[in-house]
Specification:
The complex is a heterotrimer. Chain A is about 60% helix and about 0% strand. Chain A contains eight helices and two strands. In chain A, helix 2 runs antiparallel to helix 3, helix 2 packs antiparallel against helix 7 and helix 3 crosses helix 6. By secondary structure, chain B is mainly α. Chain B has one domain. A two-stranded antiparallel ribbon of chain B has the order 1-2. In chain B, helix 1 packs antiparallel against helix 9, helix 2 runs antiparallel to helix 3 and helix 10 runs antiparallel to helix 12. By secondary structure, chain C is mainly α. The chains are: A mainly alpha, B mainly alpha, C mainly alpha. Chains A and C meet through helix 1, helix 3 and helix 8 of A and helix 3, helix 5, helix 7 and helix 10 of C.
Chain lengths: ~210, ~325, ~180
């Protein structure tokens, strides 16, 4: 997407997983409606993605692409098992609420698509650094969206009641669609603003 | 892309007819309705100005006035001002200007704003004051009732007399129940080509047809009458389904577009007692309208190409 | 009347509009009719066969965390099978069409379908699984058609640059999803 000089920090803002690449958006839209849900998703996404990509980087590169993709997904599904067991201890009430989205994190686009097209083309230390910032980029936006949706959708913050007139629809999936669309627009506006002021020159509005 | 050019006076014609409905609503519900209407207009105007500034566009689209009036007329006269204001912001910014405003209309702003309120404040939105109970601007209202449409949908009958039905003297959204004014508005707007006649007649035909096939009451005529007058059917047929900005351009296509909206709304009312289903269905039918418009454009382009080819062939000869 | 109520129920239970599964793939599929047909066909094949596999997996390993791995293996087998099938039958067109298989394989719409129906094998039975797979594929087609109808307008120059494309598509789908939610 960007032809600028590569930086390991790209994933945090410039090539953000959610706002720029629109990857892993289903859990954000459906489960990112309370802070506790978000923390559980953030924990699972970060742990599964980090360990899976690092382990998968040892898979021989001479295997066909299809086989490598299947192995990457299988590694992620194995990593998912201990991560879920620990999550039950950390977030006992949240796991049932996140439903199918918790296991689906193991087959997220970063593991399935980005590993082969991006991370595995880098040197290991660079790959790990970049991966960490991609994960942090997801975590940050997930956190922001869930806080906004919990405050304005439920009238609470971390399940503590706030005296505010809330829009209950914002906590529903359609609220997630609309809010994410608005934030994506805002993100592009901010990036194109940077471009004008001499920042990034390769922001695509298309 | 879309060849539809909306004439500049359309918003004014719509606003004039909506003003008629607003006057009657004021007589039924007093100052509180005026306040609600004023808030909707004020917030919509502010939102439109801000959007024009942010998008670096000329402030020349006054459809927000008719949209704001529609929203206020679709609400209970004593509805929360904050929520009404929020709905107007949603209508102007999210459903209209994000997609490019008047040049690229996708949804009917009033319909989408109504659905937005329905999903978050259903209980507030579907409880109404009794007609002829005038309220002061700051008065706190507690004695709200379900609409006549709700009772009709649930029980399949109503005890409203024809006289009251004609005068709109029954509980419901303030501007959607005043049948004589709505009929006059429909005639005026169709004659002035401000609304899509095809979509309007399609909606009416669909409702009447369904009332004959699956009557909601024991009497077929009564069924057709109540189905048209309740659940915002007539109001939506004029101002939402037939909105020239969103309805298909050709009357032929628009007729079937309106017909299907009416048929599906009727079935929803019969099977699920969904109040004001036509507004929701008109939003769901947006992709259908867009698909038909794409088809119309393709046919027009094919016609133009055909004409050009013939012209070239004739000039060669 | 029955058909219309079923259609509305089908729309209200749509995986994409209600559960946001497979959105990124749909954005790609809705670009043009050729893409839409190719992707929708492959997704339907994946969801149907994966659901069939899931039925057996659920019967043998009900409600265990190992199911995810087994689903992945099942989808992997279908993935390889489809590529072999395509290579055998499409000949020169293999390179042209294989992209549909690659983008559909571990798609959220496919994995989401097996998880949604998953764990109910004893009560639902094999044919319920198969029908759930076909329904999910049909749901993908329907949602893609909804997006295709507005695609050019949402990606046109009339839309403000910041919202052009994906952001406008998300808002558009959100409003349609909101109307469907209002019917529930």
């Amino acid at each position: 997407m960007n032809k600028d000089k590569f930086s390991v920090f790209d994933g945090l803002w410039k090539d953000n997983t959610i706002l720029s690449a629109l990857m892993v958006i289903s859990p954000v839209i459906v489960c990112g409606n309370t802070l506790r849900n978000a923390l559980a998703i953030i924990y699972a996404f970060s742990a599964i993605t980090l360990f899976s990509v690092v382990i998968a980087s040892f898979v021989p590169k001479n295997l066909p692409y299809t086989i490598r993709t299947i192995i990457n997904a299988a590694i992620a599904s194995l990593v998912y098992i201990p991560v879920k067991h620990m999550a039950v201890g950390f977030f006992p009430d949240v796991i049932p609420r996140t439903g199918i989205y918790f296991p689906l994190l193991a087959v997220n686009s970063i593991i399935i698509l980005h590993t082969e097209s991006k991370f595995f083309k880098m040197k290991k230390p660079e790959m790990i650094g970049s991966l960490v910032f991609y994960i942090l980029g997801f975590d940050l936006i997930m956190l922001i969206i869930s806080v906004i949706r919990e405050i304005f959708g439920h009238g609470t913050l971390n399940e503590n009641v706030i005296n505010i007139n809330f829009i209950s629809g914002l906590s529903e999936p359609f609220g997630g669609f609309v809010l994410l669309g608005l934030l994506c627009g805002l993100y592009r506006k901010m990036r194109s603003g940077n471009r004008i002021s001499g920042g990034d020159k390769n922001v695509s509005d298309n | 892309m879309d060849n539809t050019k909306i004439k500049s006076h359309v918003w004014l014609d719509l606003a004039v007819t909506l003003f008629g409905l607003s006057v009657v609503s004021y007589f039924y519900y007093g100052e509180r309705f005026l306040l609600l209407s004023g808030v909707c207009l004020g917030v919509s105007c502010t939102a439109e100005i801000i959007c024009s500034k942010l998008m670096h566009k000329k402030f020349d689209d006054f459809h927000f006035i008719s949209d704001a009036m529609m929203i206020s007329l679709m609400l209970p006269a004593v509805f929360s001002l904050k929520i009404a204001g929020l709905a107007c912001i949603f209508a102007v910014i999210v459903t209209k200007n994000i997609f490019g405003g008047k040049d690229n209309m996708i949804f009917s702003p009033a319909a989408a704003a109504y659905v937005f309120m329905l999903t978050s404040w259903k209980d507030n939105l579907l409880k109404y004051p009794e007609p002829n109970t005038k309220y002061q601007a700051g008065e706190k209202i507690t004695d709200l009732v379900y609409s006549a449409s709700h009772n009709f949908n649930m029980e399949g009958k109503t005890d409203i007399s024809d006289f009251d039905l004609m005068l709109g003297n029954f509980s419901g959204a303030s501007g959607t129940v005043i049948i004589p004014v709505l009929v006059v508005s429909a005639v005026v707007l169709i004659l002035r080509r401000d609304i899509s006649a095809g979509a309007f007649f399609g909606t009416v035909a669909g409702t009447v047809l369904m009332a004959f096939i699956i009557p909601a009451t024991d009497d077929i005529i009564q069924s057709a009458k109540y189905s048209l007058c309740m659940n915002m059917t007539l109001f939506s047929a004029i101002y939402i389904v037939s909105d020239r900005r969103t309805a298909p351009e050709k009357d032929y296509y628009a007729f079937f577009y309106g017909l299907f909206i009416a048929v599906i709304s009727y079935i929803l009312i019969i099977t699920t007692a969904q109040e004001n289903a036509i507004v929701i269905v008109s939003v769901i039918f947006t992709p259908v309208a867009l698909g038909i418009k794409n088809l119309e454009n393709k046919i027009r382009l094919a016609g133009e190409n055909d004409g050009n080819l013939r012209g070239e062939a004739e000039s060669i000869e | 009347m029955f058909l219309i109520t079923e259609l509305i129920a089908f729309l209200c239970g749509n995986l994409i509009l209600n559960q946001a599964l497979g959105i990124s793939t749909m954005f790609t599929a809705a670009k043009d009719r050729k893409n839409l047909i190719g992707t929708a066909a492959v997704i339907t094949i994946f969801t149907t066969f994966a659901s069939a596999f899931a039925c057996f997996i659920d019967l043998i390993f009900p409600q265990t965390d190992i199911r995810l791995l087994l689903y992945v293996v099942a989808v992997g087998i279908i993935y390889i099978g489809l590529l072999f099938g395509l290579k055998k039958f499409s000949g020169k067109n293999f390179v042209k069409y294989r992209k549909y298989i690659h983008i559909s394989a571990f798609n959220c719409a496919v994995m989401g379908t097996v998880f949604t129906i998953g764990g109910t094998a004893e009560n639902a039975g094999f044919f319920r699984y198969i029908s759930a797979g076909i329904e999910a594929g049909a749901g993908f087609v329907l949602a893609s058609l909804i997006l295709t109808a507005a695609y050019k307008r949402l990606d046109s120059e009339k839309v403000p640059p910041s919202f052009r494309g994906f952001p406008a598509m998300l808002v558009y789908l959100g409003i349609i999803s909101m109307a469907l939610y209002a019917l529930k």
